[in-house]
Structure formats: C-alpha cells, structure tokens
Amino acid sequence: MRHGKKINHLGRTSSHRKAMLSNMATSLILHKRISTTLAKAKALRTYVEPLITHSKEDSTHSRRLVFSYLQSKEAVSELFREVSVKVADRPGGYTRILKTGNRLGDNADMCIMELVDYNETMLSAKEPAKGKATRRRRVTKKATTTEGKSSEEIKAEVTAEEKPVAKAHKPAKKEPEAEAAPEIPQKEEPEEAKE
Question: Could you give the CA distance from residue 122 to residue 51 in angstroms, rounded to a whole number?
Fold first, then answer.
C-alpha cells in the first residue's frame, strides 16, 4: 500500500528526477511556457513555486538558495529581475496547467505549463469579459421579454391590451373603422393621381 507517499517518483531515480525538474524549471523561467506531460507538470509545480516565492526577497541568501536548485545563472537572474517583479503582489499560484489532450505515441496526458502573469491573451480576455458579462445580463433580461417572442405574439399582446380599453369606453365599432382607415387613403391616392 502507498499510504503517506505523496511524491510522484516519475519512474526515475532521485538524482535523475532532481536533474529533470531542475532543467524543466529553468526552461519554464526562461521561456515562460513549456509543453510536458501532466504528471511531470504537477511535480514541477511543487518544485518551482517555492523558488518563485524565494525570489520575492532579493537577497544573497535567496539567490544562493534558488541557484542550488536551478544550477543556472541565467535562470536565476531572469527570475530575480523580471519574474519576481510581476509576481510581487500575487500570494501564490504562479503557474497554470492547461491540458492539451493525449500524446499520439503512448497516449500520455499532455499539457502546457506556463507562468500566470505572462499569458497576455488570458489576462486581456478576462478584464473586458467581466465588464461585458454584467452588460449582457442586463440587456438580455430586458430584451428577452420582447425578443424571445415572435412579432405575431407581440401584436396579439398589444391588441389584447387595447381590447379591455375599448370595452370600457364601448367604441367597439370604431376599431374596425380605424383598421379600414389606412386602406381608404391608399385607394383614394390612385384616384387622385388619375384626376
């Protein structure tokens, strides 16, 4: 039984696993997005997020601590210069995993892992969507009362509203004349044109 075993060993020895996670973390920091399997991405998330948290405090100790995990000067400098500035106000959750389907060869679950603050399309898509969502709801609530019905149903409602008014005043005979009135001028216009 695997009680209490929370680390996914990924079918590798300890040294191989550490080297692989270090390389993947370096690639993620330098390129802001990598494509990998879902199991590796979940293991990488627990590996790289504490390093990003350490980068918020720019001290010699933090740099040396992060370098002991990454083993790459370029990745450490990129992390402390650019990434830490963008994630300064974020209290965790620096990475995002987007599933992309299965790999053709072995049917492994594939995904894209990215730094949250560097995906410009998702950041820009979320901001206007919040404003539009409230507008759409308000418009649709008002519009559905008339747009959901056909023009014949609306006309039937209008005439149904007029009929009680007509019964109260009892000019029921005038309603057919009002309907015939537009037809009479149309017939008279051609006669006037002939004269």
Answer: 24
Residue 24 confidence (pLDDT) above 50: yes
Q: Is the pTM of this model over 0.90?
A: no
Mean pLDDT of all residues in 8-37: 96
Please enumerate in sequence order all residues whose Cβ is within 8 A of that of 51, keeping only pairs 6 or more positions apart, or say none. Answer: 25, 66, 69, 70, 79
More confident residue, 144 or 17: 17
| Domains of the chain: residue spans and CATH | 14-126 (3.90.1030.10), 160-195 (no CATH)
Burial 111-120 (b: 16+ CB within 10 A, else e): bebbbebbbe
Provide DSSP, 108-147: -EEEEEEEGGG-HHHHHHHHHHHHHHHHHHHHHHHHHHHH
Q: How far apart are the first and last CA of the chain?
A: 106
For tokens 């995002």, the residue is 96
Residues 136-151 pLDDT 10s: 665 555 445 555 666 6
